[in-house]
Amino acid sequence: MAEFLTDIETIRDRARKEIEKGPITEAYGADLPRVLQILNEALATEIVCVLRYKRHYYTATGLYSEPVAAEFLEHAGEEQEHADKLAERIVQLGGEPDFNPDTLTRRSHAQYDASLDLIEMIKEDLVAERVAIASYTEIAKWLGSGDPTTRRVFEELLAQEEEHADDMRGLLERIPKDRPGPAA
User: Fold this and answer.
1) What is the tally of structural domains in the chain?
2) CATH number of the structural domain spanning residue 67
3) Both ends of the chain: CA-CA distance in Å?
4) Is 6 contained in some domain?
């Protein structure tokens, strides 16, 4: 059986002395202020994605819009769950989740989109998913073993963002390119 690197009495003593730090112990190896900043940027990204998917859900029209709109609505709900997970982690780490609407789009990695063409909506959602995938992959790698809990949060989000990108790609493949009407 492996031995602890630090004896248990020392660990207990530190836990009592720094009780106000909550889950942040001496073993925490990441740059906490930077982690909180990144978490808030990701929170902004997820909120912008919720808003974009909701916009697309309500404005999707045309012959192929019903199943596509249903996918938009499902993704909006999942992106909201992502935002909630990020906000919870920010609070766990002693930070404050930033929901300020005045700065959401500046902090977001993804962009908002107000397309009215169904194909353009899907393409913009796919681009946003690809941006999230690239960002969250880099973040997870950067966190490494310094903050394994936050890394796992990003890995969970990453897996679902990859599913979303695959869904959007599948929708693009199913809609005929020569569909009738400008907003079909």
Assistant:
1) 1
2) 1.20.1260.10
3) 65
4) no
Known binding-site residues equal 46, 82, 129, 161, 164
- What's the chain's average pLDDT? 92
Structure confidence by residue, pLDDT tens digits, 69-107: 999 999 999 999 999 999 999 999 999 999 999 999 999
Among 116, 134, 135, 113, smallest CA distance to 124 is for: 113
Binding residues for Fe cation: 46, 82, 129, 161, 164
Residue 21's Cβ-side half-sphere holds a number of Cα atoms within 13 Å equal to 12
Domain span including residue 148: 29-174
- Residues constituting the chain: 184
What are the phi and psi torsion angles at 7 (to 5°)?
A: -65, 150
Within the chain, strands assigned E span: none
The Cα 182–Cα 142 span in angstroms is 43
The pLDDT assigned to 13 comes to 86
